[in-house]
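note to self — DONT lose this again. spent like an hour looking for the file last time. sequence + predicted structure for the chain T wanted, 440 res
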Amino acid sequence: MADDDDEEGFGGAYEDGHWIWDENIEQLAFISDLPPVAVETIQIPTKAPTGTVEFRDDVDLIEQIRFRRRYQRKIKPGQAEIITVQDVKDIALFTAPVNIMSPILINMLHLPTTERFIRALILYCAYYLQVADEMTRRILELDTKVRTPVCELVENEFRDNLGDLRLLVAKEYSTMLIGGADTKKFHHMGSQKKRRSLSDKDARLFETLLRMCVQIVWLALGRKSFNQIELEMNRMFKSEIFNSVEHTLKTDYISKMAKEERAVLLGHCVRHDKKLNTRSPLMNEVFCHRQIDYRIMGLGVIKFPQMTPRLDYMYQAIVGDEENLCNMGVVLGIIGMPRGGFDTMLRPIPVASETAKSKASVSTNIMSSQGSKSSTSMRKGANAKQLYPHIYLPKHEEHEIYFPPSFPDNPEHIRLCSETQRRRWQNRLQKLLHPQAAGR
């Protein structure tokens, strides 16, 4: 028989062989002496605007010298002097307005998943602009030419290529949505997905990230067709209904497209559901019922035993070494091109034969710059010279898709981003947000 002290304390007392429960007696409480686990919290100091955001593109010479001395990526001995994705990100971060900058945005831009996402966006937008120009030319030729069955085959190839490139963007975007891999600490419900959803914070982070990616893609494609890039990227991520850029510009460009042009540029995975059930075109591409090579969904993350020339082209574009892109015939805008052909702000340096032409067009540029702000943004980069060759994706294999006996689970080697550059931009942001503390 245990002592009375041991028999009490379980919510009652032992009398005459029976337990008598008393609600006034406290229950057992297990108290841990371990310190509480620190929960990482990422705060945005100011609410970033979700409307029109203008980046600086008229950096003076003094600012360029400061950027080259303090923030430009330093080339180490033995490294190729070529343009990398990090160089383009540095220009975008340097010219971004302070009110959209935040430590979480800088950290997210320096993740391997985000870098694959940006490279996939550059590849898609470059091919999209190329196909859009080709389709415009083909539609204009309908006045004098007759469509043949060959036209359908060529346009179907354009449509399938755009769909596969959208899948490259969608697979990285899906990783960000679910907080997978290295993006889990940026999830709106925490890394364990057990907190209350911070939907407002998540929406503002997404808006600033999307606007930053638009600027990065525009810089990587030689500063041309800004509004066309912005409209297409917002359509992909938000659908036609919630495309805020289209609501602002009111271009009505989709309804102005010809039927053949719309079928190629938008694809056949577009769904027009009710607003509450609307999914973005990127997610529609993932769940679309069409023949898709499943290996596209794991490029750069999982090693596959067999790779077709088409898959290898996409693989090199999103995770390959930048110094080998030109040698392998992979086009990714100005990424991989020699650094000596561009100035500090990644503008092409004109050669001697082009100097006379540029002087002759000075007066025209001055007159065009006196227009309204909206028309200036619509023309931004419209007349830029084509700095990179056209993209020619290898065709699909004629035989059926290879299915291995088991799904491969060997991870691919992940290319890390520059930690040095990330710290530089974090320090610069702290100086801009707290100038008094930085001056001490």
